[in-house]
Amino acid sequence: MVQDEKEKTELQKAREQKRIEKEKENAVKQARAAVAKGMKKENWMEYMEALIDQRLAEGVGGTQILTTLEIEGIKSQVVNQPMRNTVSFVRYELSENDGIVSKTKIFEDTVLVVEQAETIAAHIRSDNLASFKNQCCSLLSNNVTSTITLLVLGFIRHKKKSVMNRLEWEQATLELQMEHNITTFLITDVAQLVEHIRMYCKALGERPHKLRKSKDLFIGATKNQLFVDREGGGYLQVFIAQLQEIRSVNEAIATAVAQLYPSPVILSNFIARDKEGAVAALADIQVRRGVGVLANIRRVGPEAAKRIVRFYSSSDPDEQIV
Predict the structure, then answer these.
(1) Residue range 277-294: average pLDDT?
(2) Could you tell me the pTM of the whole model?
(3) Which of 22, 66, 130, 148 is the 20 to 30 Å CA partner of 183?
C-alpha cells in the first residue's frame, strides 16, 4: 500500500515536471516568435519613438506636430533635450533569454534640429551663427550623436518674400556642411516637418533589418564564389571566368581557349612570342556548342581573338578593350 502511494506520488511529480517543461518550451517559442516579429522590416513603427524637445512642442506648431505624429501612428514623447528645438530617436530592440522577452532602449545617432527661418537669418546677418554651431558641436561630442540635420522651418523660396538672399544662405549652409557635416533641408510648413520626422523614424527603424539582410547577402554570395584551394583545385575555373570578362568571350569560347592554354602565364607567353600569329591561332580554335543532334562547331573568330591578345599583352592599365 505504501509502495503504491510512493509510485503514485512519483508519477504525479513526473507529470508535473513534464507540464512545467512543456510550458517553458511554449514560453520560449512565443518569446522567440515575438523577437522575430520585432526584426521584421514592416514592424518598424512599433519599436520606434521620437523624442520631441519640450520647447519645440510648446512653440508655434508644436501641438500640430504631436497631433499629426499620433495620427500617423508614430510614437512620440516630450522631453527636455540638451539642445533646444531638437528631435532625437529611440529604438527598442527585443531579445529573448530563457523564454523571457526583454526590451533594450537604444538611442539612435541621428538628431534633427528645427529652427525658424527668421532665427537662422538673424544669426547670419548678425554674424552670430557661431553660437549655433557651438551648440551643434557640443551635441556631436556626447558619444551618441554622429549625424545632425538642420530643418529650416518657414523658408519661402520666392525672392520678394524670402527672409534672406540666396548667396547668404548658400554660404552659411556650405560652412555647416563642410566644417561640421550638418545637412540642411528647407521646409515651408509643419506638415513637411512631420513628414521628415516620419521618414527618419522609418529609415532608422528599418536600418537593423537592412544591415542584417546585406550581411546575409554577402555571406550567401560566397556559395558561388570561385577560388583556388591549397592543392590548386579550381584554378582552371578561375581562369575561364577571367577570360569571360573580355567582351564577346562567352563560356564556350573561354573553355576552348583554356583547354589549349590552361593558365594566364602560358597564354601570355604564347602571345608575347608572336602577337599576329597568336591572333590567327586563337581565331582558328574550334568551339563546340550544344549537344547531340543540335551540336555544332564554330571558331573563336578574329574579333574575339584580337581582344584576348590585347587583354594579355597590353602594358597600359588604362587601355580600354572594346
Answers:
(1) 83
(2) 0.58
(3) 66
